Amino acid sequence: MIKCLVVDDEPLARQLLESYVARVNGLSLVKSCENAIEAFTLLQQTKVDLILLDIQLPQVTGIDLLKSLKDKPRVILTTAYRQYAFDAYDLDVVDYLLKPISFDRFLRGISKVFELKQVAPTEVQNDSSLLRSYDEAYLYFKEDREMVKVYLKDILYIESLRDYVRVKTATRQIITYQKISYLEQTLPERKFTRIHRSFIVPIDKISSFTPTGVKIGTIDIPIGRNYKNEALRALNRNNVLMKQE
Which of the residues bear the PTM 4-aspartylphosphate (predicted)? Predict the structure, then answer.
């Protein structure tokens, strides 16, 4: 079992990596830390085999954390910035993942760690446990000065507002600074699908649809021309059949 530590100051990024770790047999999450100081303290007390480490951290960067460690575990760097790649490989990291990170790209990076141990990674396949965890799954969204918890099962749709998104539930809406492409990678693909450049919807909330749009309750949401095929594949994966007209 490879013991993992996630270090990232963004709550959504931590939750995404935690969900990816949970999907791979042979990986075990020790803890998620939001800064390098917290991670350094943990590493003095607990042995880990792999750090999934963001570079741009408050106060102490991920690069500085690595340089401070005498007994380094394997490290995969995660960042939105390409310019650190040279420094990263100079520190002998296993891989360098650019955000937003897809599960396939994550798995390729993890495969390199398993290769060093001469073991092949496999994805966890347990639909009942996935369903149970989904009922309890949530994300935090920053609104004004507070972090607001939103359960995934309560989301009606997510709408892009350029550099912001609107997260709509039955009881409230949250507008937060976030790219819709990042949420597309973060949300479970079996439960959510992007049907338009501006919209992500939960598949189980769709009450009816046509080739050009879906209805969630009384809300009409368009299907973009470039997203139609993927939207139909997502619906069919979830045993929703569409009568072609």
Answer: 54
- Cα separation, 239 vs 236, whole angstroms: 5
What does the alpha-carbon distance between residue 56 and residue 79 come to, in Å, rounded to a whole number? 7
Domains in the chain, start-ordered, CATH in brackets? 2-123 (3.40.50.2300), 141-237 (2.40.50.1020)
What residues have CB less than 8 Å from 127, skipping those under 6 apart? Answer: none
- For residue 3, what are its two tokens? 């013991």
- Mean confidence (pLDDT) of the chain: 84
Spatial CA neighbour of 178 closest among 209, 147, 203, 222: 147
Distance CA 97, CA 99 (A): 7
- 87 — pLDDT class (breaks 50, 70, 90): low
Q: What is the distance of C-alpha 79 from the center of its chain?
A: 13
- The model's pLDDT over 125-138, given as tens digits with 9 standing for 90+, comes to 444 444 446 677 77
State the average pLDDT over residues 45-61. 93
